[in-house]
Amino acid sequence: MTEVNETTTSTTRTLAGKYLTFVLGRESYGIQVLKIREIIRFTDITAVPQMPHHVKGVINLRGKIIPVIDLRAKFGLNSTETTERTCIVVVQVALASGVTSQTGLIVDAVEEVTNIAAGDIEETPDFGGAFDTECLLGMAKIKGVVKTLLDIDRVVAAETASALMHV
Amino acid sequence: MDSGLGTQLMACQDAPDYAALCSIIEKLALELVLAEPGKDNGLLPVNSLLGDLEEVARRMEVPEALGAAIRKGREWVDALFGAGNFEESTLSRLRSWVEWMQAAVSALHNGQAITPLIAEAAESSTATAPSAAPQAVEEVAPEEPIVLNLENDGELLREFTNESHEHLQNIELGVLTLEENPTDMATLNSIFRAFHTFKGGSGFLNLRPINRLAHELESLLDLARQQKLAIDSQVINLILSGGDTLKRFVSEMEAQLGGQGGGSPISISINDLLARVRAVVQQSQSRLTPAPVVAPTLVATPVSHAPEAGGTQEAPGGTAGHQDATPGSSGTAGAPECPPAAANAAAAGGSESPSKNGNVRVHSGATSVKVDTLKLDSLVDLVGEMVIAQSMVMQDTDLLGIQSQQLSRNLAQLGRITKELQRVAMSLRMVPIRSTFQKMTRLVRDLSVKAGKHVELHLSGEETELDRTIVEEISDPLVHMIRNAVDHGIEPAEKRMAAGKSPHGLVHLRAFHQGGNIVVEVEDDGGGLNRDRIVAKAVEKGLITSAANMSDSDVFNLIFAPGFSTAEKVTDISGRGVGMDVVRRNIEKLRGKVEIQSTLGKGSRFTIFLPLTLAIIDGMIVGIGTQRYIVPTLAVRESFRPTADMVSSVQGRSEVVNVRGRLLPLLRLHSLFGINARAADPTEGIVIVVESDRESRCVLVDDLLGKQEVVIKSLGETFKRSPALAGAAILGDGRVGLILDVDALVGQRTAPLSMAA
Question: Do B723 and A164 lie within an 8 Å CB cutoff?
């Protein structure tokens, strides 16, 4: 029993830190602040044909062309109309090939940047194989709200892989 | 080591002074090596540099040993002024003095003790053998690996490797010029300077093997400069292999700087090469002064000379210093090893005589600045952004409403400047193809020796400018094609003579502008492609069933198929069946194409067509639904709105358009891309005829929106394998437009068709 506790604390301790939290529908998520480059307002997206439906297309980020992923669609949530709170979170991720690339994530609204202590983080429970928990770092409880901490490298890397497979 | 650390700290604090010291000594060394006995050229600069040296030394409060040496140097230079000219003996004395200074300063920097300058030894040794350069004899030190101090010297090492490339290239190009014209002093000097800089830099960074090698080669070249050594193929080969060895060091160092296997020792054997160089140096000296007295002097020199040599060589030794053999034993060990090595070198040198060719290009030192390519790319990106911002200002509806002459004048001025800026920024990416071409000279030289054929390479159009990326990327395909030309194209001399051709094979490498393209041609006067053999091979490989109605060019194109090779035997050089498919892939990656012309028995010509730049294409912007796409204008033949009788459907699935009697398949882009088109009926939309690889397709779009030059951007990893897109570009309004890959669009339809056939 003590052993389990110890491993839990050691994993969660490395997870403690600053997170940007945002909402998708009624769910709340967090991404490590270090991964975030900037947050921009929702803009026109140029659709790229023959891509999975959650890959919305590309945008021009000050001369750079970056792909945009709809996290709602990615996580299988119902799609909604964009509101004025909808924004694109630009993250910098390291791909499997070793190169870093920027990717935009469409989220319903950004909440705040918050410090999450090790004690507030729990390891991702086993959902009984209901879905793949590979992209999750853990779960955090802040003021009674559960926030899912995303391993954004994996979320985007899986994106690249699935885009390739789709071809 | 504690006291050493202290000195090092001190040296670090005095970094600017230290750098000044190094640079003065460097300059002094250069002046001295360029100085010639019996002339006063360089005497004044040496004097003033010595003055600078004295001043810096006073300011730095250098150790006594160094101060004493500087005073000694002053004494000698003053004596020189009395004589009016450099003299052989004082010159070599000063040269060994400056070498000692270099060693002493780097020892000072590394916090090691300075071995005192033994002026008397230097004087006596130069007195006994005035004609022998003091560096001619040196101990054969055991091979030492280089261990890089990445943490402290990282920046310096990086600078060293960066600069090395240029010097290595100078060496290589220079040697090839020398081969044509062995008496070209300007080239000889430039090679000499390159090795000299290597020596200086490596001594400073304590890279002993590089330092030793550069030093020996420098001595060799110095003899040639003084016309005591004739440049023959043996010397040329020595310089080339010296350059190659240095290149290996540099690339190993770069690998470590790049984070691969950091800290592990780099050991590349140099002793063999050193022995060969020394043998040549000694040979030339004994040949020059054939008097019987000299021979014993040469053997004796190491002994009398040893303390001085030990002093200069061990001082920078650093960690490896203790491995050095003692001066006495090294002197005797070095001497007997040389004669057999000399024989080897002479045998290896071959009997190749340098061909006479008068048109030697003197490399003019164009004024240029080295800039990090990342900075350059970001400048180009920013200028692209600015062009977009400018066009957004121009199209701003609020501004357009203002009736002001002043405003419209200013806007026009802004437009002109932006355009000019864009033009200049784009031209920054353009470099002459010369460097790539000249690499091929070396390649042909090596290949022809290996294949035992005499092949000449003729270059033309080296000044043709191409996009930097293309110049880099075209190198590999060219290497493949030239290898093929030399190895398979050019026949052996006997066969050529039998066919009534000159025994010397000829390969032409040309670059020129043609239309909107750059053309690079590789032409050889060899045997040409054998149609029957290609067909037989293709049938054997199952690529075709028969070549009954294939044109020659179709047959020749078969050699681009993967794994296709007609060479009867695999040689060291080529014939492994990889090559031509890689050539075509690489060229297509550059958005270019390659064509073959060949006549059996006469030779073949490979023509590569390349775009001027990779960064910009002329694009036609088309609309489909709410989306806009860019079609490269180069691929567009024509566009029109079809009438109902031009379009007919085939089995209710495919459609063809009758374009002036040619039936071309119709590709509905909207259904391929899953977009709701405004013009589902072809008669309401526009049909664009696109062409790729001489195959045409009709592409249906909603409307044409205009023509624009666009800066191509990569779509990135996520869309890497997107089948129909070649990239993206930012359009005038700041939004992204996707560039269609016409080759893929055409291919998408040909694949199922040919399978059905």
Answer: no
